[in-house]
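ok new one. same drill as before - structure tokens go in, u give me an amino acid for every spot. 245 of them this time. try not to just spam alanines like last time pls lmao
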């Protein structure tokens, strides 16, 4: 049996990542779906932590690309652009190089991993049946894992071929099989589904079965907010953490 920790949208929130790692326990691999930096106060510390872990998948997201100058800041709202610029200045050249080398999608065994969607790996939010169906149709694997929207959800193709999409709270389990299935584990560092706790998923696999479980964990929100305040990150980004929106 192997255990894989799936994380997305950590957004430089070290307290949230540490709480997730504690809650996840022993894992064989970490799959990171991107947006490791941006918004939060600890871009360097989060990258260092991920490098120490058995991180076998590390994707780039739009905020990572903006921080290293690969996407124009004009494509972001003011608060996001300020945080991306600050992150880029904070991280050393070697981290710029690492972030620049990351793919935006990858196929790992029988699972496709992407930050946004199969139609647009960097920018598309998969939040509707239509967008989930398009990604499932474009995928060569039955299972697709996405990040980017900061909303924990699952989408699956029913027997009639139509796609259903629903948000997924902690404890929801999904068995992977032949049914096309799309999963967003939710965001570690800036949840936007009304639950301020850090979100993640655990995938347990052996030769015959794969089961994914959605999870949430409380973290030191005030600690992250204090660190953000100290380095002068925008107030709107600080305040949204406690409401999870
Ligand atoms: Zn994000």
């Amino acid at each position: 049996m192997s255990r894989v920790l799936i994380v997305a949208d950590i957004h430089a929130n070290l307290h949230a990542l540490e709480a997730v790692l504690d809650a996840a326990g022993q894992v064989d691999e970490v799959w990171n779906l991107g947006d490791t930096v941006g918004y939060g106060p600890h871009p360097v510390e989060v990258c260092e932590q991920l490098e120490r872990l058995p991180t076998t998948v590390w994707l780039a997201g739009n905020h990572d690309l903006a921080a290293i100058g690969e996407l124009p800041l004009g494509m972001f709202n003011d608060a996001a652009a300020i945080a991306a610029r600050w992150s880029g200045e904070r991280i050393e050249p070697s981290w710029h190089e690492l972030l620049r080398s990351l793919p935006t999608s990858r196929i790992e065994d029988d699972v496709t991993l992407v930050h946004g969607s199969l139609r647009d790996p960097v920018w598309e939010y998969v939040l509707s049946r239509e967008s989930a169906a398009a990604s499932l149709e474009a995928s060569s694997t039955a299972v697709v894992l996405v990040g980017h929207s900061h909303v924990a959800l699952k989408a699956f193709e029913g027997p009639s071929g139509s796609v259903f999409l629903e948000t997924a709270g902690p404890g929801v389990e999904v068995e992977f099989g032949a049914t096309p299935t799309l999963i967003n584990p939710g965001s570690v560092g800036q949840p936007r589904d009304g639950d301020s706790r850090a979100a993640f998923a655990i995938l347990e696999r052996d030769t015959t079965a794969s089961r994914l479980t959605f999870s949430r964990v409380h973290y030191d929100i005030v600690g992250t907010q204090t660190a953000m305040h100290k380095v002068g990150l925008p107030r709107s980004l600080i305040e949204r953490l406690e409401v999870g929106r």
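The domain at 2-104+167-178+187-240 is CATH 3.60.21.10 (Purple Acid Phosphatase; chain A, domain 2). and btw The mean pLDDT is 96.
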